[in-house]
Backbone:
């Protein structure tokens, strides 16, 4: 991925990626002392491997174990085999939760990409104070979701929020943003796109800056319009960055939770009950940790399959110049 | 030059770290206590929202009498308390002693998470003491009891020329008064009673209905009584009561509205007596109006010692003091908090002499006809399902009949 996003014009797309591990092993000589070599490798891996093991791998394996049990967190676990999975798959709430999550992604992904691309294009120019703008757009990305979600909950408050107040000034009767089931998911999508567009912008900006200027000069000489240069030079050369953004945003989209929990809590009338909110409710409201763990694994499988499809499908549209 | 983005990221990261440090939760804290004191950690919810200093006063009096024990209180709002407690128990970081309401006591008693207590129970009202026994073993102590009454703003009634509520009122009287008192132009609302599970099972009893069949195997509230109760609750929203879009249902919304003198009638618990003592208008309480019959909600909280506690004796000593000492009785009565569960009724006399409200007798009159919440294994799911369907009716997304039928079908699935 890291070599892909630089978009260097030296390597044809068909060439398999280099294998840095093998290369290093051949170039770094440790006098055949494999043990010492392994020790050094372990030392360098430890800072990421230890936390990953402790806080990701161990909990994942534990949750797989819990998913085979009935457990209310208080009484001892009871082994039930695959019953939790069977129950979930025949439960309409599970499908509804996946449906809401897909609805979120369908609204969020195009919106955040278009907004992020627009910001990247605007800030890739010689605009005065562009560093300030770049920082400003990126600031929400590093802000706590709880703060952002509370802010948006207030902005979109149906009775006394700023948005409906402003709409009222121009004679529009604003909707019941997070109290109306039809508007609750759009509210969450809006807040999410606002917060994440800075991330998309930064990645695409890096991509834009590695597009060689000569290509634009050549295209100009050929008498192209600005739109044609965008469509046939910028977009194709940006596709590795786009691919990265889409993969990451899709995974984040499937895991959407913080903003939903704070803004709507899954309501009104279950309209924003996304999968992770459902996992939370099952565990902590309803004391059904087994079902919640099983649902986590269903989500994991879905994300895995979607990501594999994306990685396989990238050959068709991602251009490594 | 420092890059602005990097600077922002560093600042935000620092803020996040600070936040996560705060939210780390005292559940894992292990303060040593001073001079070899024994630390007893106590998790609770019932002092939250205005009675924190009262609990502190009880703690101070206990520590005065027991200089060897350091009680560390960890207060969590009710809405988050049971989530936090459940997680703490699962992780083995629960406090030595903690508070439970009656509905949750049964689950915890079943689980083996509670230590057996060895107490001389004479100090307690027998029925309340028995409520916290499980299979003949005393696993908890009653801590307090409370009920729900109708609060009303006397100034608003006088200004509108509406006669004040009496113990004989029915729903019809309340409805008529609420309509007369609602003045949307002035931002004044006539009534506040959320359309939730806890109001519904009570209204259902007032309408003469039953939540579950006699043997508890199915719901019985998809009935004319159930529809009447649901209609009574859901028709208030947007007519005599603010809607969800106007803020109803958010924390402290109703108490703030009443405190600001913009709410004429309010269905709430007697634990609000203390926090409302200083409002700049006259108010009083009355037993809730009924329909076919009267029925008031009664709540009992208890306290328990964790089976994992390293200091069960000290923890129990603290709980006995907390539930039955004279300091507690005096503090609770003075503050107008929930009532102490003591057997000696004479000690409760000072409670009746205080004002506001003048009609404290209503607190005891309400106990004549009480209704307890239905308790099932999948309690929270039942409560959420009923509240959500009532919300659908209140917001006009479903007819009342449809909402009640859907709620009954969803609860039947949980039984």
Residues:
């Amino acid at each position: 991925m890291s070599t892909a996003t630089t978009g260097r014009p030296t390597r044809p797309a068909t060439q398999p990626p280099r294998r840095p591990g093998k290369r290093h092993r051949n170039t770094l000589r440790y006098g055949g002392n494999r043990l010492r070599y392994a020790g050094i490798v372990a030392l360098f891996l430890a800072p990421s491997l230890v936390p990953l093991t402790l806080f990701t791998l161990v909990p994942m394996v534990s949750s797989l174990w819990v998913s085979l049990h009935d457990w209310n967190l208080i009484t001892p676990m009871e082994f039930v085999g695959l019953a939790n999975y069977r129950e979930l798959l025949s439960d309409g709430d599970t499908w509804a939760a996946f449906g809401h999550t897909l609805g979120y992604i369908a609204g969020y992904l195009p919106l955040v990409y278009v907004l992020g691309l627009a910001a990247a294009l605007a800030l890739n120019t010689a605009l005065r104070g562009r560093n300030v703008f770049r920082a400003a757009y990126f600031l929400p990305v590093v802000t706590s979701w709880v703060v952002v979600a509370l802010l948006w909950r207030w902005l979109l408050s149906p009775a006394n929020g700023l948005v409906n107040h402003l709409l009222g000034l121009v004679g529009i009767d604003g909707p019941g943003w997070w109290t109306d089931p039809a508007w609750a998911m759009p509210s969450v999508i809006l807040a999410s796109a606002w917060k994440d567009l800075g991330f998309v912008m930064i990645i695409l900006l890096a991509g834009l800056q590695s597009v060689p200027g000569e290509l634009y000069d050549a295209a100009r000489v050929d008498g192209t319009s600005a739109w044609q240069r965008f469509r046939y030079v910028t977009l194709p050369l940006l596709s590795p960055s786009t691919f990265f953004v889409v993969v990451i945003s899709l995974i984040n989209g499937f895991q959407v939770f913080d903003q939903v929990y704070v803004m709507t809590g899954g309501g009104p009338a279950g309209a924003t009950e996304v999968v992770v909110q459902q996992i939370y409710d099952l565990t902590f409201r309803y004391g059904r940790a087994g079902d919640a763990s099983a649902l986590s694994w269903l989500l994991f499988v879905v994300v895995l399959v979607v990501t594999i499809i994306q990685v396989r499908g990238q050959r068709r549209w991602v251009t490594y110049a | 030059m420092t890059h602005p983005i990097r600077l922002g990221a560093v600042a935000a990261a620092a803020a996040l770290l600070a936040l996560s440090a705060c939210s780390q939760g005292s559940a894992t804290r292990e303060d040593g206590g001073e001079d070899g004191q024994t630390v007893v950690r106590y998790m609770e919810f019932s002092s939250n929202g205005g009675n924190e200093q009262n609990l502190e006063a009880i703690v101070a009096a206990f520590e005065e009498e027991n200089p060897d024990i350091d009680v560390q209180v960890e207060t969590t709002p009710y809405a988050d308390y049971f989530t936090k407690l459940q997680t703490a128990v699962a992780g083995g970081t629960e406090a030595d002693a903690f508070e439970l309401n009656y509905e949750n006591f049964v689950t915890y008693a079943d689980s083996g998470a509670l230590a057996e207590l060895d107490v001389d129970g004479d100090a307690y009202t027998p029925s309340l003491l028995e409520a916290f026994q499980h299979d003949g073993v005393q696993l908890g102590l009653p801590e307090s009891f409370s009920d729900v009454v109708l609060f009303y703003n006397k100034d608003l009634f006088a200004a509108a020329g509406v006669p004040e509520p009496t113990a004989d009122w029915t729903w019809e009287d309340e409805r008529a008064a609420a309509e007369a008192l609602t003045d949307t132009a002035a931002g004044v609302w006539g009534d506040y009673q959320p359309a939730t599970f806890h109001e519904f099972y009570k209204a259902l009893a007032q309408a003469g209905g039953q939540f579950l069949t006699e043997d508890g195997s199915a719901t019985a509230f998809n009935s004319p009584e159930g529809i009447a109760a649901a209609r009574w609750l859901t028709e208030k929203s947007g007519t005599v009561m603010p809607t969800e879009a106007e803020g109803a249902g958010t924390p402290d919304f109703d108490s703030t509205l009443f405190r600001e003198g913009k709410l004429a009638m309010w269905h709430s618990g007697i634990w609000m007596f203390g926090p409302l003592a200083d409002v700049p208008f006259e108010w009083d309480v009355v037993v809730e109006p009924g329909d076919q019959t009267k029925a008031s909600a009664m709540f009992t909280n208890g306290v328990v010692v964790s089976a994992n506690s390293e200091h069960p004796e000290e923890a129990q000593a603290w709980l006995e003091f907390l539930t039955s000492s004279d300091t507690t009785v005096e503090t609770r009565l003075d503050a107008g908090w929930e009532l102490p569960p003591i057997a000696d009724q004479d000690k409760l006399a000072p409670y009746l002499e205080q004002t506001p409200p003048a009609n404290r007798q209503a607190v005891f009159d309400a106990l004549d006809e009480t209704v307890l919440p239905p308790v099932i294994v999948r309690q929270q799911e039942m409560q959420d399902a009923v509240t959500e369907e009532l919300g659908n009716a209140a917001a006009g997304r479903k007819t009342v009949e449809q909402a009640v039928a859907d709620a009954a079908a969803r609860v039947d699935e949980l039984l």
Q: What stands out?
A: Chain B touches chain A through 36 residues (CB under 8 Å). Residues 4-22 of chain B form the longest helix (19 residues).
